[in-house]
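Internal QA ticket QA-208
Title: Verify multi-chain structure generation after dependency bump
Assignee: T.L.

Test input:
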Amino acid sequence: MLKVNNVEAVYSKMILALRGMSLEVPKGKIIALLGSNGAGKSTTLQSISGLLSSDGGQITDGTVEFEGETLNGKSPDAIVKSGIFHCMEGRHVFPHLTVEENLTAGAYTRKDRRNIQKDIDKIYGYFPKLRDLKKRPAGLLSGGEQQMLAIGRGLMAKPKLLLLDEPSLGIAPLLVEEIFENIKQINEEEGTSILVVEQNANVALKIADYGYIMENGRVVMQGEVDRLLEDDEVQNHYLGIGTEEDQKEVVYKSKQERMVW
Amino acid sequence: MDFFLQILVTGIVVGSIYGLVALGFVLIYRSSDVLNLANGEFVLIGGYVCLTIMTASNLPFIVALLITLVISVLLGFSVERLVIRPLKNAPVISIIMATIGLASLLGGLVHMVWGHRTRTFPQVFPSEPIHFGGLIITPVYLWSFITVLVLLVTFTLFFKFSKMGIAMRAVADDAKAAMSMGISVKNVLAVTWAIAAVVAAIGGTLLGMINGVGPIMATIGLTVLPVVILGGLDSIGGAIIGGFLIGIIQNLAGGYLDPMVGGGLKEVVPFIIVLLILLLKPYGLFGKGGAERV
Ligand SMILES: Nc1ncnc2c1ncn2[C@@H]1O[C@H](COP(=O)(O)OP(=O)(O)O)[C@@H](O)[C@H]1O
Ligand SMILES: [Mg+2]
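Actual output:
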C-alpha cells in the first residue's frame, strides 16, 4: 500500500536527514519504525505526509508511493485527501479549540459533512474520557488526553493509513499501555493501516506486525516482530534498558547539543 | 446629563465601527503574526467605492454596498496573492514593511482617483432624528449600530460553527498542525484578507455616512491599533470590546476635555490609554500571551 523507496531528504538544503530510507506498509498491518533520537524517524513521516516542506526540508532523491501513486511534490492537503493522516510528534492539538472542535477540524477534507457527528461519537467510544471533556479547550488537557485527542482527530479524516509519531512521548506509562491498546483496536475495527514511530520499542513491538529499526537516516535492521524481539542487538540497544527516565534525558541532551551548534 | 448620554451614544456607535474594523486587523494578526498597516487604506477605499457607486448610478444603497463588498473581496484576495503569498517565507517584519508600502500605494491611488476633498454621502437614511426619552439619535447612527451588531453576531457564529471558521482558528493556533489536517493554509489566509477588507469597507461606508468620506479616514487605521492593543492583539472579543472602549473614551475626551484645552485631545487619548495598558498588562486586556499548558 505504502512504499518508501530510497528516499533522501535534506533540511535547509544542506542538513542530510535521510540517506536512502526505504520501507513498506502493507494494507491492514501495523508497522513499527524504531530508532534512537535523531535517527530520522520523524523526517521519514514528514516525507510521506508532505509536511517536510513546512520545516524547510525537501526530498532530493527516491520516491514515496501510495496505492500506486507517487506522492512526491504533492501538497499536504492533497495527501490527506488521498488517505494518509499524520499525527505529529508532540500531539499538536489546537489549544484554544475545544475537544469537539479539534475533532471537527480533523474532518476538514471530508465531503460527507452530515456523518461527522456520528463519527465524533465513535471517537468518544474509543476514548470515553474525551466525551466528558468535549467542551474544554484542548490546551487544558493532560498529555495523555491530548494524545488521545490527536489520534481521534486523525481518525476523523477516515484515513486508510495513519502515521503516528511517538504517541508515548511524555505520557504516564499506564496511559501509554491504554493508548497502544486503542491503536490496536482501531487497526482491527477500522482496518486502518498504521505506521507507528517510537523510541519506546517495547510497547510498539507489542502491537506491531513488522518492525524497522533506523539509524542515521536509513534502515539498519528489519523483520517480523518475533524475530526482532529475539535478536540480541535489538534487546541490548532498544529493549530492556530504555526506561522512561533514560529516554527523557537523551531527548534533553540532544536538544541542547543542537542549540549549542 | 443629556450631554453625557449624547456623547456616550456617539461613542458607542463609533466604537462599534472601530471594533468591526479591528476585527479584520486581529484576524490577520492571529493567522500570520502580520500587522496589516494598510488597514486604514482598506477603510478609505471601501468608503470611496461605495460613495462613487451611489453617486454615479442610481442604485439603491444596499446594492451599492453589496458591489462594494464584492470589490473588497477582490481587493483582499489580490493583496494576499500579490503581496503576502510571495513573501510567505520572509520574516514577519518584512511582510509588515510590505504592508506599509501597500498603504502608500493604495493611498496614492485613492488620491489620484478621488483627490483629497472630503465628500458627503448621498442621503441614505432620513435625517429626522429619533427621540428616545430625552435622547436624540440620528437614524444613521442607529442603523450603523444595528449593522455592526448583526455582523458581529454573524462572525461569532461563523467562527464557532462553520468549517472555514474553525479552520481559521486552527491555523491561528498551530499552522503546521492545521496543514496536517489537510487545511490549505493558503486558502485560509486568502479568506482572512478578504474578510479584513470587507469589514474595513463596511466600516468605511458607515463612517463615511456619518462624517463624510475623505483621506483623513485612513487614520482609523491608526486608531484601530490602540483598539487591538487594548483588547489584546490575538483576541477577537477583545478587539470588539476595545473598539467600544476607545470610541467611548475618545468621545468623552472630545466632549469634555477638548473645549478646556482648545481641542486635539480626542485624537491623542487612545494612545495615552494604550501606553498605560501596555505598562500594566503587556498582552492587552484580553490577550493570551501563551499561558496555556502544553
Ligand atoms: N527542522 C529541521 N531543521 C534542520 N534539521 C532538522 C530539522 N528537523 C530534524 N532535523 C535533523 O534531522 C535529523 C533527523 O531528525 P528526526 O527525523 O527528527 O529524528 P527522530 O524523529 O528519529 O528523532 C536530526 O539530525 C535532526 O537534527
Ligand atoms: Mg522524532
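Spot checks passed. The interface with chain A takes residues 163, 166-167, 169-170, 172-184, 288, 292-294 of chain B (CB under 8 Å).
Status: verified.
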